[in-house]
From TrEMBL:
Coiled coil regions in record: none
PROSITE patterns associated with the record: HTH_CROC1
Molecular function per GO: DNA binding; DNA-binding transcription factor activity
Gene Ontology, cellular component aspect: cytosol
PANTHER family: HTH-TYPE TRANSCRIPTIONAL REGULATOR, HTH-TYPE TRANSCRIPTIONAL REGULATOR SUTR
Record-linked Gene3D superfamilies: lambda repressor-like DNA-binding domains
Protein name according to UniProt: Transcriptional regulator, XRE family
Length: 109
């Protein structure tokens, strides 16, 4: 059985870019060195689950969405290319809508 390889760097860069947050701003928010964020994005460091939790909380995205963004080619290799592009577009829409929902007034029922 093949072990799935998660690309946390790719996911981090996508999520951070979608939120328009710099590496420096993210690192300040989660009390890490900016170079560590850079190393994660380059695939030279694998963050701990605690660090991932801080990252997704700071970026205001669900951790399951972050893991989906981090999915590698092997997890999607049987999917036709046309569907892969659609999945990527849906993920980005979900990511951006999560931010909008967080800033919307909450129902007070």
């Amino acid at each position: 059985m093949e072990v799935p390889i998660m690309n946390y760097g790719k996911a981090l860069k996508i999520a951070r870019s979608a939120r328009n947050i710099s590496q420096k701003d993210l690192s300040d928010a989660i009390s890490l060195d900016p170079s560590y964020i850079s190393l994660i994005e380059k695939g030279k460091r694998i963050p701990t689950i605690e660090t991932l939790e801080k990252i997704v909380k700071s970026l205001n995205i669900p951790i399951h969405l972050f893991f989906l963004l981090a999915s590698g080619k092997n997890q999607m290799k049987k999917m036709p290319s046309s569907k892969k592009a659609g999945v990527a577009e849906l993920l980005l829409d979900l990511l951006l809508s999560t931010e909008k929902n967080e800033h919307s007034p909450k129902n007070k029922n």
